């Protein structure tokens, strides 16, 4: 396992969720470049440091004990990674404070270290929330691998923070150094909203929600085929996003008891607000979590899922396969997993390895809707 070495610390780091023979590191050259630059510039012992979008805690854990560190991001798996890596390296659990991206980290901060996220809307919202949270002479440093660092990231830093200087590339990583300037209080364009015709509901979407401007085409293919039940059912929307699958199902199944889970705090925030708008005070459980890892075994009758095929910049079916395993464990015997997926991902064959029956419910040229029976 590679060791992450910087002037601040020497750390043994792991990714979340853990998998055997993990092919990827929990840090990269952009993390290393950012910390080397921070050390070269000097970090006062009492400095307050805000770390944004620290994938698995490499930055925050490195700075633990060197400054007062607050970490903020939109990934619950990122939080689990931070907690695991603090413990793994014998660092106090309270060495880093964590604020979910659905809330605002309160400054003033002397240094802000940003890993540029895949979704630039998330970066924009985070920069907007920095207004009024920077100490005098604060420095804002964003980092990313060159291939994942769009010009628009620098434009956003310039718009909301101040003049930006791009560093030279080192090990295919680059820094964007922003000098804070006096700017008027910005108005956030988030959350966004769109309407569905069937059923007639409006959906609100915070900045990091997948397909924020319109219903994604996979869900659009899934909605007409959602099952309906008149009996009391225990149902989970796994990877719920803005909650649309659960809400539409609940409208057609008035006795069902729903649990909505997503690893994105902004998705959970959106789902809560959308559920309340569509279903009022109808009881529901909505939480940020590592899928159904916390769900008791044999406790669900139905799981609905539109699984992701990427984690940050990494594309693959590892997370989907893990969600299928979690669903099987949580379902009662005879319980069903209903999902939508791209045809080319071959979920039908994968599900057959876990479930006793797999049926194709519907298909479009691009998507299939599948039902797997435990």
From TrEMBL:
Subcellular location: Cytoplasm
Domain Methyltransferase small: 201-371
Main location: cytoplasm
Pfam families recorded: MTS, RLMG_N
GO molecular function, one term: 23S rRNA (guanine(1835)-N(2))-methyltransferase activity
This protein's record includes keyword Transport: no
GO cellular component: cytoplasm
InterPro entries on file: DNA_methylase_N6_adenine_CS, RLMG, RlmG_N, RsmC/RlmG, SAM-dependent_MTases_sf, Small_mtfrase_dom
Top-level taxon of the source organism: Bacteria
Alphabetical UniProt keywords: Cytoplasm, Methyltransferase, rRNA processing, S-adenosyl-L-methionine, Transferase
Catalysed reaction, written as an equation: guanosine(1835) in 23S rRNA + S-adenosyl-L-methionine = N(2)-methylguanosine(1835) in 23S rRNA + S-adenosyl-L-homocysteine + H(+)
EC number: 2.1.1.174
Enzyme class: transferase
Keyword check for Manganese: no
Domain RlmG N-terminal: 2-180
Family, per entry: Belongs to the methyltransferase superfamily. RlmG family.
Function of the protein: Specifically methylates the guanine in position 1835 (m2G1835) of 23S rRNA.
Family annotation (HAMAP family): 23SrRNA_methyltr_G
Protein name: Ribosomal RNA large subunit methyltransferase G
Species this chain originates from: Pseudomonas borbori
Species classification: Bacteria, Pseudomonadati, Pseudomonadota, Gammaproteobacteria, Pseudomonadales
């Amino acid at each position: 396992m590679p060791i992450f070495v910087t002037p601040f610390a020497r750390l043994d780091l792991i990714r979340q969720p853990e998998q055997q023979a993990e092919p990827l590191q929990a840090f990269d050259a952009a993390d290393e470049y950012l910390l080397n630059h921070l050390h070269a510039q000097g970090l006062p012992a009492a400095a307050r440091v805000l770390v944004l979008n620290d994938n698995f805690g490499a930055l925050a854990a490195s700075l633990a004990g060197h400054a007062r560190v607050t970490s903020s991001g939109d990934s619950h798996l990122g939080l689990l990674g931070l907690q695991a890596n603090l413990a793994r390296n014998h660092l106090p659990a309270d060495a880093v404070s964590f604020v979910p991206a659905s809330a605002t980290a309160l400054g003033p901060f002397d240094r802000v270290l940003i890993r540029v996220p895949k979704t630039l809307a998330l970066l924009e919202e985070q920069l907007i929330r920095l207004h009024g949270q920077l100490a005098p002479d604060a420095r804002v440093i964003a980092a990313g691998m060159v291939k994942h660092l769009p010009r628009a990231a620098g434009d956003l830093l310039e718009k909301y923070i101040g003049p930006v200087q791009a560093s030279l590339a080192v090990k295919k990583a680059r820094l964007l150094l922003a000098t804070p300037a006096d700017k008027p209080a910005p108005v956030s364009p988030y959350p966004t909203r769109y309407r569905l015709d069937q059923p007639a509901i409006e959906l609100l979407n915070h900045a990091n929600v997948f397909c924020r401007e319109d219903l994604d085409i996979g869900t659009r293919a899934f909605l007409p085929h959602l099952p309906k039940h008149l009996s009391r059912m225990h149902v989970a929307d796994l990877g719920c996003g803005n909650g649309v699958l659960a809400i539409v199902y609940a409208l057609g199944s008035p006795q069902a008891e729903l649990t909505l889970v997503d690893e994105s705090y902004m998705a959970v925030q959106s789902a809560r607000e959308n559920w309340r708008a569509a279903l009022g005070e109808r009881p529901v459980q909505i939480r940020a979590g590592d899928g159904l890892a916390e769900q008791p075994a044999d406790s669900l009758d139905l799981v609905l899922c539109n699984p992701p095929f990427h984690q940050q910049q990494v594309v693959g079916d590892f997370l989907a396969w893990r969600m299928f395993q979690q669903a099987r464990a949580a379902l009662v015997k005879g319980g069903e997993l209903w999902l939508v997926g791209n045809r080319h991902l071959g979920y039908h064959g994968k599900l057959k390895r876990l479930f006793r029956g797999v049926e194709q419910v519907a298909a479009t040229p691009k998507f299939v809707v599948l039902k797997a029976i435990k």
